[in-house]
Structures are given as C-alpha cells and as structure tokens.
Write a structure and sequence with these properties.
single chain, about 325 residues, about 10% strand, elongated
Length: about 325
C-alpha cells in the first residue's frame, strides 16, 4: 500500500516537473522570440537611458503601435535632457496614447526639444494638444523663434497685389504691407489664423488712410500709418503675435475725388438741361394756350359783330330803331 502511494506521489511529482519544464521552455522561447524581434530596440533604449522595457515593446506589438517610433522618440527626448521619468514628463505610455490618438509623436518631441533650446515653455500636454488640433506644432515653435512675414494682401489667396484706400482729398493710394508675426503658443488652439490677421491689418490700413487729410501726408510719413495700426491690438484672439507692420510699397492711383466731382458736375449739367427743356416746353405750351385763347376771343368778337346788324334789323322791323318820321 505504501509502495502504491509512493508511486502515485512520484507520478505527480514527475507531472509537475514536466509542466514546469514546459512553462520554462515556453517562457524561454518567448524571451528568445521577443529578443529577436525587439532586442535591437531594447538595446538602443537601454544604452541611451530611455527606459523602455521589453514587456512594453511586446505590448506595443499587440496594441498595434509602431515600437521604433516610440523608442526613437523617447531616445531623442532622453538625449535632449527632457523629463522622461515624472508623471508630467514624456513617459512611454503617454507617447503610445498620443500615437493611438492619431498624433505625430516625432513631431511633438522635436517641437518640445526646439522649444527647450529656445527657452520657450512648452510641455508635452500642450504640444500634444496642438498636434491633435491639426496644427503643425514644430512649425509653430519654429515661427515663434523665427518670426515669419505675411504679405497683406496675400496675392495667392485674393488675387490682389495691393490694397486700395482713398484719403479725404479724394486721391487713391495703392498700398502693399508686410506683417511680421510670431506664433502665440498660448492661443494656438482655437486662435484665429493668418487670414484673420491679413483681414484686420487691411481693414485698419484702409481706415487709417481714409482718415488722413491728404494723400501727401501718407506719402511723407507712411510709418505713422503702420504705427497707428500696430497700436490697435489686431492680434487679439489670434494664434499669432504681431511684431511689426511695415509699408512695403505705396503708389498714387486715380484721383477718385476729382472724377466723382466731374461726374457730379456732368450730372448737374444734364439735370439743368432737362429742367431748361422742361421750362421751354412749358413756355411753348403756354404760348399755344394763349394763341388758342386769342383765337377764341376773336371768334367771340366776330360773333358779337355779327349780332349787331341782326339786332339793328330786328329793331328796324319792330320800329324800335329810334328814327322819327314826319
């Protein structure tokens, strides 16, 4: 009986042993396959102090995340001295989440590095939000460091090369303006775009020229217009900060005031002619009425003269003529 129990214990022990060996073999096989698939990436991350575990790399495979993108982004962040350890830093999980949300991981990390080098405060959350909003965060940082110039008006969008404004003396001025802007990272999400800047600057320049007494004033001091426009705060609620507004070119156009006065004078002449023609027609009509009245009076006179012989004949017949007979 004891031998039977001993045999059964031996069988259970052998089964557990082979099960353990099987699990160990599977684990070893898993490690070998994982190392073959992700070993080079893990080694790169390890020697770059990027802290990406093998389990994270395997998890990326099952989550359909491109592991090379995440690893290279984290290596780049680690080598640039960015925070990759704290909860608000560039953690592997946060990079994966941004990738799965459809963001450009490399673009975000490069933008954060560029902002750090330029002394601009840009954390991962804001950079990721800008990227997911559809803005090029790297270009935004680049524009914040190196301001760009916007033509006003933009001939590529509007088809016009100059703005047309009229001073109070009626002379047209054709103006081309260049606006230097810097990205405002605080208002990049939800802020108005370049089209709004161009529209506001164009409207303000036209208004400023229109309030000038003469066009010579604008030609002599074009910087007065640009400074007046710059003080209006046209970059409010936009994704940009206006650095300067410069009048690149200004030309004298048509004398709109003189043309309008000439047109008005011609219109006045036409009105005067029409009124004179009306008065002439009224005079002719009055003359015709007077002639008709004279003719009517003459007819009545003839009728009256015709009544005289008749009255005399009736009086003679009736003996009322007033003649005395002997």
């Amino acid at each position: 009986m004891s031998l039977l129990l001993l045999g059964q214990s031996f069988d259970i022990f052998m089964i557990l042993k082979w099960v353990g060996i099987g699990f160990a073999a599977l684990f070893a096989l898993f490690v070998i396959i994982a190392f073959i698939a992700f070993g080079s990436l893990w080694i790169q991350a390890y020697f770059a102090s990027a802290r990406v575990s093998m389990f994270s790399l395997v998890g990326m495979y099952f989550r359909q995340v491109k592991a090379p993108v995440i690893v290279h982004a984290k290596i780049m962040a680690a080598q640039a001295g960015l925070d990759i350890s704290s909860q608000s830093g560039i953690l592997t999980q946060r990079l994966e989440a941004h990738y799965l949300a459809g963001g450009n991981v490399m673009n975000v990390v490069q933008a954060i590095i560029a902002a750090q080098r330029a002394g601009i405060d840009l954390d991962f959350d804001r950079a990721a939000a800008i990227d997911l909003a559809g803005r090029d965060v790297q270009d935004a940082v680049r524009t914040s460091v190196h301001p760009k110039v916007i033509d006003c008006p933009d001939s590529r969008r509007s088809g016009k090369s100059t703005l047309s404004a009229i001073a109070q003396d009626g002379v047209e001025l054709r103006v081309r303006t260049r606006v230097t802007v810097r990205t405002n990272l605080e208002q990049l999400i939800g802020g108005a775009t370049e089209e709004t800047i161009i529209a506001r600057v164009g409207e303000s320049i036209i208004s400023s020229i229109g309030s000038s007494d003469t066009h010579q004033t604008v030609l002599e001091n074009p910087d007065l217009i640009s400074r007046a426009v710059l003080k209006r705060g046209l970059d409010a609620q936009t994704a940009f900060q206006i650095v300067s507004i410069d009048i690149a070119d200004i030309d004298v156009g048509d004398n709109i005031g003189a043309r309008l006065r000439a047109d008005q004078a011609e219109a006045d002449v036409r009105v005067a002619r029409a009124k004179a023609e009306q008065r002439r027609a009224e005079a002719i009509a009055t003359e015709q009425e007077n002639r008709a009245s004279v003719a009517e009076n003459q007819a009545q006179l003839v009728l009256a003269e015709a009544e005289v012989p008749r009255a005399m004949a009736l009086a003679f017949k009736d003996g009322n003529l007033g003649l005395e007979t002997n």
